[in-house]
Structure formats: C-alpha cells, structure tokens
Amino acid sequence: MDLNEKQIQILQVAEKLFAHHGFEGTSIREISREAGVNIAMVSYYFGSKEKLMEAIFHYRVNTAWFGVQEILGDTSRDAWEKMKILFGSFIEKINEKKYFHQIVVRQQLLGEAGPVGEMMDEVRCRNFGILEQLVKEGQQAGLFKPEVDVALMIVTMVGVSYQLMHLEHFYRKISHLENMTQEAYDTELRIRLKNHLETLFKSILFK
Amino acid sequence: MDLNEKQIQILQVAEKLFAHHGFEGTSIREISREAGVNIAMVSYYFGSKEKLMEAIFHYRVNTAWFGVQEILGDTSRDAWEKMKILFGSFIEKINEKKYFHQIVVRQQLLGEAGPVGEMMDEVRCRNFGILEQLVKEGQQAGLFKPEVDVALMIVTMVGVSYQLMHLEHFYRKISHLENMTQEAYDTELRIRLKNHLETLFKSILFK
DNA sequence: GTTTAAATTAAACGACCGTTTAATTTCGTT
DNA sequence: AACGAAATTAAACGGTCGTTTAATTTAAAC
Predict the structure, then answer these.
(1) Confidence (pTM)
(2) Of A131, A148, B5, B157, most Cβ neighbours within 10 A?
(3) Residue A162 is nearest to which of B161, B163, B170, comparing CB atoms?
C-alpha cells in the first residue's frame, strides 16, 4: 500500500491527535480540519476511522526493526555490545516517533483485541525472539549468567522508556531541566536513558 | 465528601469501564446500565462525567500512601530494608487497584492538564520527596552511593510495574503461565516483580 | 396522616458523531 | 475540444452523546 502526499498528511495529523486525545477522543472532523482536507476524504482514502488507525500502524510498523538482522549477524562484536546497540536504536526509535508510541500504549490498555492488537502481538513476539537469541549467544559465550528472564528484560526496557517519555514534564521539573529547548532535552534524555538502561541490563545479565 | 452505597457502586463501575475503554470511549449510558441505575443519577450525584472522573481520583488517591510515614520513621530498619518495604507496598497497591492505575496511565498520556492532572502531579511530588528522603538517609549511612537519580528510580519502579501489568497476556504466553488462575498468576507475578525490582534497585543504589 | 426533602424516573434537548450521497471540479489522456 | 476517471465538495443521514427537565415515587420527620 503506497500512500500519496495527502494521505500521509492525514495519517500524520491523525497520529498526533490520536496520541494526544485517544481514538474515541478524536473526531474525523478535527483530523480533516487540521489536515486541511474535506471530512469525506478520510472515508474516501481509508474507508473508516478504524481503518485509518490500522493504516497508521502499517505505516509505522513496517519500518520498525529495519537493519536489526545486520547488527545481530556482525561477528566482530560480542553479545553485550550488540545488546547496547539494540537498546540504543530502540531509544532513538521511540524518541523519533513519540506520537506513535503513545498510541501504542493506549492500544496496550485495550488488550490484544482487534486487528491492531494482533499486529502488536506479532511485533512483540518477533522482538522477543531477537532478544532471546542474543541472550543465548551471550550465555553460550559465558558472558551472561545462565538464567535470564528475557520477557522481564523487554518489559524493563519498554516500561522505563515509555514512562520517562510520558512523565517528561515531571522529570524536567524534578531534574531542573525546565528551561532546556525540546531538542536539547531530548538529546540529554537519550544519553541518560541509555546509561540507565545499561546499568539495569548489567544487573540483569551479569553475575 | 462521604459517599453512599449507590454512589460507590457507580464509581466502581465507572472506574472499570474508564480503565477498559477510556474516558471518551465510555458513555454515561453504559455506566448507568452496568451499575443498575438511571442515566440521570450520574449527573444527579456527581454533576457531570468530568466530575465523576475527579470523584474516582479523590476516592482512590486519599487512601494511597497510608501508613508510609510509619515505615520511614522506624529506626530499627536501615534505608535499604525500608526501600524494599516501600516498593513492596507499591506492588501490592497497583495489583489491588489495577483498574485505577490503568486510568492513571491514560491520564498521564493527556499531560498534566485539568484538575486530575494537578492531583497526580501533587502525588508524584510527594512520592518523590519520600523516596528522596530515604535515599539521603541511606547515603548518609554510607550505604548507598553518593549520586543517585531519584526521579529515574521512580520512573523505573512505576514504568516496569505498569508495563508488566499491561502486557499480562503477552507475559503469560511467553513465560508459559497461560493456564494459571488469575489469583495464582497475580501472586507469582508479585514475587517475580519484587525480586526484579530488588535487582534493579541494587544496581541503582549500590556501588 | 400529612409534610417535606431526597431519590428516581422517562422523556426530551441540542450537539456532535462517523459515514454516505450526489453533485461538482480537477486534470491527464485521447 | 472532448472524454473519463480521480479528487473534492457541501449537505444530509441516522445514531449516540452528555445533560436537563418535569413528573413521580420513596421514605423519614413531625
């Protein structure tokens, strides 16, 4: 499914509004007004509001873990270095696509019902497989400890990153970063989050 | 504000539905039908849908950190033991009030706007103060390392716990806990989460 | 038993919702 | 210039929304 310029415009506006006000909290009229198109264009291009949401997920998910296999196959790095690259790229991804990941959290709260729920379940299983493989590699090399709860590891990575993203205002206030520009804050946070996750993952993976 | 039996009935039904389908995704008609009362009763008792949400927060928040001061003041335990008790009781709380904490996550996504946003900000600041105090106590005793990002610590505790709660289905599948009863699963998870947070917090607090 | 305030009800209100229709415009192809 | 498919539009559709109204029932106080 290739999208023209106007379709992408609608998609991105809808993504932002769904992230801020939720699916039910956003009206087609709002989306079309903000995107500068007629109300009927949404149905015309996407069929329905539900299908619009699905289109957002297809638009984002298909480019999600691009290039991961290359990292995993790299024999010049050990499992721990690969792991650091992996969660580093995860941090970049969610920082780059904040709106989408807010929608993901909302969809998580709805459970795994609907076609979007199935998509997310697939992605999660794929990510679990990747991380599991990497952990096994590290264990076989005698680098990581023998018993590691990979699911809890993902939950930790995703949970901490999401929560930090949601509580931006609070974290800025508490950490005296209120006067930073958004760009500078994002950069600073990526660094802090990366160091933090590295600390946490060390305690999970090593003896 | 003291609530009669019927008001509490409405509150609890609304809490469940808001958690599952969100604020905008839940109608007054649904709430009143499920609670077995007339539609007009919600406006009659609470004024409006918004005020109903506020009432839910007052209902839950007021009993939130009950008994914490006693733990902190206990001189027979060191800071690390108190810390373990503290996040242990946090785990109990969110497990006990799952629905409410799903609403909290939804409200987080809306930012800190509105009267509910202010309430949550207050609670967060209070919790931050409590944890900060405890960390300082541990540092002065030479137990914890001198530089600790308390905000990141809270984010870790809350983020991991929430994420694990949201991904119950996924975690059950991946960890082969699908056939457990809800009760047994909850118990097992509280144990795993407690151990996990202990591991993580050790890496944050100790050298 | 009468009074009075609280509780409860069915019905109606106007507003907004997602979607469809049918007419019109746009624009590349012939 | 004429055609036809795609794009765009204003208007209307039936339905649901949160809230209010006005009438009725309930139940406690006197």
Answers:
(1) 0.93
(2) B157
(3) B163
